Amino acid sequence: MSAAGAKRGVARSRRSFALSALTFWSLGYVLVGVGLATAAVWPVYESPRALAVGLVGGLLGMAVAVLTRLLRWGMLIGALAAVGTYLVVSVPLAIPSALSSVPAFIGGLRDAVLGVVLGWKQMLTLNPPLGEYQAVLIPFLVVMLFGAFVATLLVLENGRRATIAVPVVTAMSVFGIAFGVSGTTSPVSILGVALPAPREWLIGVALFVASLVWLVGRARLQRAQALRTVAAANISRRATPVWLTVRRHLLSAALAVVALVAGFAIAPAAAGWSDRSVLRDEVEPMIVVQQQASPLSAYRSWFAGGTLDETVLRVQGDPGAVDRIRLVTLDSYDGEDFHIDPDDRFSRLPRTALPAAGRVSLDITIGDAYRGIWVPSPAGLAEAPAFSGTRADALADGFHVNEGGDTAITIAETSTGDEGLIPGDRYTVLADAPGDQGDITALQGGASNLDTDRYPTLVEWAEMQEQPRTGAGYLEIIDRLRARGYLSHALLDDEAAAGWIASLKESEGYAFAPSYAGHSAARVEELFTDMVEQERRAGADAAPELLVSAVGDDEQFSVAAALLAEHWGLESRVVIGTRLAAAEEVPGIPACTETCTGANMSAWVEVRASGADWMPVDTTPQYAMLPSSITEGEQLPEHPTVPEQPRSEALDPPQAQSDSNNDAPPLEEPQSELLAILLPILRAVGLSVLGLVLLALPFLVLVLAKRYRARARRTAADPEVRLTGAWEELVDVYADHDVEMDTQGTRTQRALSTDREASDRLAALVDRAVFAEHPPTKDDASAAWEIVDAERAELAHDGRWWHRLVKRVRPTSFIGRVRSAGGLRSFGLRPVLGTLGMTGSLGDRKASGGQT
User: Fold this and answer.
1) pTM for this structure?
2) 734 has pLDDT over 60
């Protein structure tokens, strides 16, 4: 055998698999790494299923790697085997919920394929523990199966490449840290020293010690194996001094001790360097939420036109103690709009919850008056809603809640290209029954949290009331705010406002008073300006009906109440929703029992002391007493009556912005039930086929490239080039079919190294034609290619069908030619000609410096 052949034989033997102490030692190291990685990821999932995914996935990856070495597969075949194993076990192991039916299994397989790319982002939009929700275990399975596969292949190497397994095993454990929670385990005290994050410290030290022990043990086992080989060959060796052996043992022990002491000493200091940051901390709030206009700005649209009597939602079931259905909770005010804080996080909610007593189940159906991403629901959802109908899967996939569970959204796409709920959507919610809401009067306020320079009139009016900065004082000031306000949802008494005006007139009598929309700081200050001036004119001891002066509705008064709470040193936020029968009655905005229309939509404020529970406070102003107009210096009657406000013609100011969807296009005709069943199945099948096509695309490119290369060689214009192309094609065929051939020497020498008759005949034919006195003919070229085709066909019949398939798509011939052409150092003539076949005459190639 030639030197090159011997070198290949040695390289092949290094990649063979043999049972030995070193093999078991290396596999044990990978197994320890799998266990540590599973332990590191526990806080992310906190589910027994995660333990099964970690351990089983790691063992499967190790098994595929061992099988690859045992059967002497190439890296490509081994990787394909790992991918196949992943596709087989991904659904039953990581997505067991997809085993309920055939369509669910196809959808689960789609999630397993797409989860390799998209699953990581899904993990970061969930608040841990993730449990078994949908396909969140897919990224962990990918890390464990393929990480263990690569690490096992590396540790079974005999050369220096085996040490690369250390960062691979470490990366498997880093997954649990990077995708974990921001907080760490509670500190513990050891020998009087506080050790922060003991669990994380223990995993890190265990990884270091395991890697160090494996490297030292591997070196010792390799040395012992080499000594046995020397002894078997009867080669004498000089004995190792005892002191050198002792020194090696002491050095290894010292390294382990230093690592433990250093980790124990550095951990407390490192914990104080900076706050712990993980990947989920860097995820921006959902873009779709930030793109929404403030729902409070569109509050008056519920009372405009026909929306007042249209159904917003229908609630079925016994609500029990649930007294409110909230649409959205707004916790940030910028002086112009109340909206959702940009730092709020929206994440998914598990679809199943552990049993608990006192929960309430309600069926909610969206009516014609509502479209949008906000999902009406009670507070305290125990699990994600169970959606029904043709859009159930899309609505469930798009469902998210904020961190406190106070606002729910769905970003499912509609038929019109919008997002969210549409009329006809149905779902069932399971919510914890509200407990004792607490006593607001027991709250203790504090220093103002408000920018008093921005709200001078608000502060002035609050000080005029002379109330203590307690919960009781706050409730009293809100009662005065509502009593001195007057309910109005519009600026003009026109057809758009006729509905709610007639409704209020029917109940207790109502006289219209105009009011502007909006809840900016200027609009709220206008309310307090009216009340301050009225109180100055009428006097603090005036009758209540003489102090009515601020006109508006829940949009303005809820914001005013929230700002007053901040001035009282309390936390506040605004909630838009509807009250149910269990809530306290509020004149002007009736509660709904089963059908909730625009007339039932309200806005209220929730307040709390720092860290306490939120408590609702209604803010709707009264409408029994009209605003009074008092001239400064006017002598008030001893027994005043409520003056009628003179009517005047109002100019048309710019109308307030509204997000009403009255002009939305009509819904599309509902699809047939057959299409409703078939479309999700066809979509899942299509996505699965698309995923398989994407996986097969690289192999299809290789097949086409090989065909193009062979065609370029076979159809060259010069017969001599076709002859040399036939030889190059045979060399590539041998490379793809694992036929050993020397890379150096003449054609005849290289042909002899293969022990194949076809290569000998082709080498002789090509040499005779190239070096003969007369140029070769077309018949010579055809004869050469007949030899190549016959040899290719003979090799294609060897082995099983899947062996032949792998040989057709393997890139060995391309890689070998790139290496022989000098890798990436030559981008010009040589790689192109060496890969696809030369296309010029021999004289042209010699003139250009080419080689045969």
Assistant:
1) 0.54
2) yes
